[in-house]
Amino acid sequence: MTKKLTVVQMLPELESGGVEQGTLEMGKYLVAHGHRSIVISAGGSMVPQLQDEGSEHILLPVGKKSLSTLRYISKVKKILVQEKPDILHLRSRFPGWIGYLAWKKIPFNNRPTLITTVHGRYSVSKYSAIMMRGEKVIAVSEMIRKYIIDNYSFAEPSKIQVVCRGVDTSKYIFGYEPNTDWKNEWYGSFPQMLGKKLLTLPGRLTRLKGHSDFIAMLNELVKSGQNVHGVVVGGTHPKKKKYETELIKSITDLKLQSHITFVGQRHDMKEIFSISSIVYSLSQTPESFGRTTLEALSIGTPVIGYAHGGVEEQLNVLFPAGLIPIGSTVDAALKTKAFLADEQTPKTNNVFTLENMCKGVFAVYKGE
Q1: Bridge partner list, 137
Q2: Over the stretch 240-279, which tens digit does the pLDDT of each residue have?
Q3: How many domains, the chain?
Q4: Does any domain span residue 218?
Q5: Which residues are within 8 A (CB) of 159 and not within 5 positions of it... i.e. 6 or more apart?
Q6: Which of 6, 13, 229, 311 could bond 281 through an S-S bridge, CB–CB 3.0 to 4.6 Å?
């Protein structure tokens, strides 16, 4: 019989995002398998779900980047001494420092096992190095494993374990179709998309996400007479309004106003991906993993993406035909035309699944 574990996860807050989602998913998995799950964070809109799924939440603003936050080291130590967890899992840098320093203050034989997850390619620094200090270090992709080895000589390769992120394939079902009500509402809101092949770029409006490349590709397709419409899904941070203005000017200059729609931040990505002919990943820098592309692939929508980072790893396994050279909008346009003429389908995703991710993290907890 498996020993029942108590696991403490630490992160800045529970508002939104991939790290937060992964924390909830791991908490739910632990509780479902009879273990105890505790999360320390500054709270947020995801706390009710976390608690409904059986985890406990301890409210501490351990992610606030301020020297005053260091006062929580003693509080975290007290929690660890009281709760006697088997695992302390650090998921972010500032909480990582608080958790690590608290852990170090506990006598060696009474400490929980220290696990860290490196979720992204952090700036290489002493500050970031805390995430490589785990007794076991989880990398979310092979790219992240390489980043750790290349930049932190003290990180022993043997203690780094790759556990790729995964999606819930009981939710992101291969061949998923949205219901009629959703479609009616969507096309009622965006009648300009009716009868068009939808090409979708998910991602908040920042230069890194490749919106300019997407617009350049769309321009090539429209000029060649393709019956397509570009869909840009993602919010704009107030600090990025200038960039949004630049993109709109570019669209106007190319006379593409009737061929592209910015739909803003949405919570119905699964439905949008399902009605899209193709989804794109045109990030200028490699994604550490890329959850949105995996969601699209999992329901069977083709993805065209630059051959780098975690997205390349996904496409190599599920849809190698979608890979294109980094930065080549010409290849993006050519491959789009080919896919529109001859529909392609990804392989069924039984590799990058939520179940595999949770089992992988749990195996690290158990020291396997």
Answers
A1: 116, 160
A2: 788 889 999 999 999 999 999 999 989 899 999 999 999 9
A3: 2
A4: yes
A5: 134, 135, 136, 137
A6: 311
